[in-house]
């Protein structure tokens, strides 16, 4: 069934099916589903269920995402000594599924090394396997730490067509698919675990169209879906014609068993009768944030979440995402006013909590703050008040939220955005205290767009309009505004995007038209806040470069922004 030259780890049998007779069509089932990292037994049972369902619907081949057996990314679970035995045992449990070919992503461990692999299972036997050749080691990917490089192409014959296998990054480079074409492939099957980034689906479509046209090959592209720690996999699985056009596309962010039928004689897929809705930029961002929070909370075993609701736009948007992710019955909002909290903030927080039907509590912090200040008074020795006293307010709120979390088992989610986190406009052990930051990778200017987007989804806004229109404030001192300490957010986010997401230097950012003094100030704030970010909770990645595993800077260094 498989054909693989000089691969010591491959079965080279050319057996196709029970009767080995070509058929007029081959139907592929694209199993776009969520496979939880480490939960091998549940993942295998899900594969079984989907395979039987696909067979019932007339599928000949079912394709699962990259490393679906173990989940992606498994990170140092790949180093566990028991991994090989668990994987072999799990694969053996699928041996009783007949009359459908299963292409399963799994970690392959043998005396040659550890590989990111795809197994070909048919009628109780493993007919062959393929090892990923291009191992990504950038951004969120760290595959060279764990995997050995595959070195051979793998094809298998089935019902009159020759199918070539690739895994994720293999398809982003020209070489692997070109070699499969030279060796006689009629169609490519690609297993993927491709994380979400803003507008990445458009990039995938462009890449797939290019690869299929260059090689005149149809492509079956299957992607994972669901949240894993700070990553979200957004699906969007596709069947692509040899001319680069999309014949079938699965909806984004949803489990879907998508069937695509190939005419063997023409090597063309049948066309999808109804394509999924195209998502706007704000829509895909919002869905990614919902999925990321939902899966993190549910799979971590928390019974609900707690949000510190301030009456400001960040906590308002966070509350909306939390309710959409988990349901109102699992969301608990706490307003913690102090003497600088405005009446407008109290009214807006209460109005939103009522509109979303969440549990809402007002817990004043005056006594807590004054108690701490009284305790510190002898130590401060009549020093004038400064940001220290402001931070005491934030830290009193953090203590209250964490106490409620400890008592009732709910996860505290923080509400800081990427702009604030970038420049250190946040308080360690205060507003940064919590287990998950929903807006960690969302710039302030994007927060406003997402809030307006969410309000447009319903006749009655879920966020009071004046929360969006009034100037943002931390309300830690009288008449405080964010712009007292920071430039206008549109300007700030422009500089931050250039410096963080695009890796531009000082002079390059100035050349874009930004004020030199402002650029220097912002860059210094970003660099000086690295120690804070290292201690911040994780949050869903939506941008090209989030604060997390893909951006690693030394906490202590003497790098000069001006060279």
Automatic annotation (TrEMBL):
It catalyses: deamido-NAD(+) + L-glutamine + ATP + H2O = L-glutamate + AMP + diphosphate + NAD(+) + H(+). Keywords: ATP-binding, Ligase, NAD, Nucleotide-binding. Deamido-NAD(+) binds at residues 391, 420, 532. ATP binds at residues 308-315, 415. One of its GO terms (biological process) is NAD+ biosynthetic process. The keyword ATP-binding applies. Belongs to the NAD synthetase family. PANTHER family: GLUTAMINE-DEPENDENT NAD(+) SYNTHETASE, NH 3 /GLUTAMINE-DEPENDENT NAD + SYNTHETASE. This is Glutamine-dependent NAD(+) synthetase.
